[in-house]
Amino acid sequence: MVLETVELLREEIPVKQQPLTLPAHTKTGLVLVDLVNGFCTVGAGNLAPRELDKQISKVVKESVRLSKAFSEKKWPIFAFRDCHHPDVPEPPYPPHCLDGTDEAKLVPDLLWLENEPNATIRCKDCIDGFLGSIEKDGSNVFIDWVKNNQIKQILVAGLCTDICVLDFVCSVLSARNRGYLSPLENVIVYSQACTTYDVPVHVAKTNKDVVSHPQELMHHVGLYLACGRGAQVASEVFFE
């Protein structure tokens, strides 16, 4: 039933996407959203997968590929880590990615970014990384990163397509349109390097505290909404 619904959505609300080649002459920044143990590593926490999730594994693998390519080219990387204070809840979600725990750390295959000179790591305590980049003095770490690196376009990967990725993309697009992110022009979501979590309908029916969240369906919805807000969607990513 879910697969049939996904196919129907693809027909009724198609997401325009195509292969993307990143040119050497256009300054591109890579943005990684919440590739942390608490969302990606089996059994790591309340919002981590309970068993091996092929889609999440694929996203991590592709994000590692992109990160290594950007590192080799000395292109800028911005990685968000979901990170919460124990006394500050984030409803409707249970406690997750608490500050100082392994849940809030980047997945093992991306820990090297902590020592990557071209990478900026940002702990965020909210769904929207753009808002989570605001400092107490009103400055914004992400805006500064774009301006300091003179980034023309960003390539976005990570979790979850319909939640943190979507909220971040929408905020960035609004900020760009208002002139806060010059010289940023393009916001690109890489569909093969994004996904969301999976709570099948039959699981939700057996637990009154759980809302169904079919992975493929909600991933498609997230891509569609991002595209509708003005983001580009890439089906594949290559380098010149």
Care to describe what's here?
It holds the Pfam family Isochorismatase. Belongs to the isochorismatase family. The structure is a single chain. This protein has 240 residues and is of the alpha/beta class. It has a single domain, classed as Rossmann fold. Helices cover 34% and strands 20% of the residues. The protein is built from eight helices and seven strands. A seven-stranded parallel β-sheet has the order 1-7-6-5-2-3-4, with helices on both faces. β5, α6 and β6 form a beta-alpha-beta unit. α1 runs parallel beside α8 and α6 packs parallel to α8. The chain is globular and about 50 Å long. The N and C termini lie far apart (41 Å). The model has no long low-confidence stretch (mean pLDDT 94).
Give helix and strand order, one letter per element, not per position.
HEEHHEEHHEHEHHE
CATH class designation: Alpha Beta
Distance between the termini: 41 Å
The name CATH uses for the topology is: Rossmann fold
| Largest β sheet strand count, sense and barrel closure | 7 strands, parallel
- Overall pLDDT score: 94
Oligomeric description of these chains: single chain
Uncertain segments: none
GO biological process, one term: pyridine nucleotide salvage
GO molecular function: nicotinamidase activity
InterPro entries: Isochorismatase-like_dom, Isochorismatase-like_sf, NIC1
Protein name: Isochorismatase-like domain-containing protein
Q: Descriptors for this entry?
A:
240 residues; alpha/beta; Rossmann fold; seven-stranded parallel sheet; 34% helix; globular; Isochorismatase-like domain-containing protein
